[in-house]
Amino acid sequence: MNHVGGLEAWRWLFIIEGIPSVACAAAAYFLFPDFPETAKWLSVGERELAVERIRGVASLGHARIIWKEAKETLTDWRLYLHYLAFISISVPFSSISLFAPTIVSGLGFEGLQAQLFTVPPFAIAFVVTIAVAWVADRYEMRSWAAFTSFMIAGVGYIAQGALPPDSFKARYGLLCVAVPFSFASIPPLFSWLTGNLRNTGASTLAVPLNVSIGSLGQMIGEHEINLPLLPI
């Protein structure tokens, strides 16, 4: 699509990737209520039922965050264990895009074919992530879903590192296992976090903290790739 409509191909790449996000954001604004009690498309009875179903296990709505809730959230040591878990699973996200092409190029593919071979791990991740999220919600086992995904992904990455450098086919197969379960651990982690926060104020603070602190893992992943190049 280079020079189509007078735009370079890289500009079209950003436009095409951005359109679904913008469309989903617009739809979410109108379709997703902030809280069950504010869902206009539910009847009064349905709203009351929805509120009762999540009472004591999820956040209910109120107007603003108060200092007491903020203090309790910032001083809850258990939340920091959750942030640490999110850091650990964020490490591979930045490094996947760096070492995946190396594995694919080792298979003997170049150019467009090499790019196409980087698609299957992420396509599988789409299916696995939805399946794990459904199981975690259906059987209310979010911690086990996250833990199992952690373990499978971790074993996959360790096995890739332990294999000989020229075992490209085996490493690619393990990549198709490790990448999907890396992504699959995210929905259970998020829902586990929000499900254990008793009010909106805690959610307002804990969720952004989780994402912000967890992003440190991506920084670690980027520098991890360059460790062999650093002076000792």
From TrEMBL:
Bilayer topology: Multi-pass membrane protein
Regions crossing the membrane: 12-32, 80-104, 116-136, 142-160, 172-193
Cross-referenced InterPro entries: MFS, MFS_trans_sf
Keywords: Membrane, Transmembrane, Transmembrane helix, Transport
One Pfam family in the UniProt entry: MFS_1
Protein location: Membrane
Gene Ontology CC entries for this record: membrane
A GO MF label: transmembrane transporter activity
Keyword Membrane: yes
Protein name: Major facilitator superfamily (MFS) profile domain-containing protein
Species name: Hermanssonia centrifuga
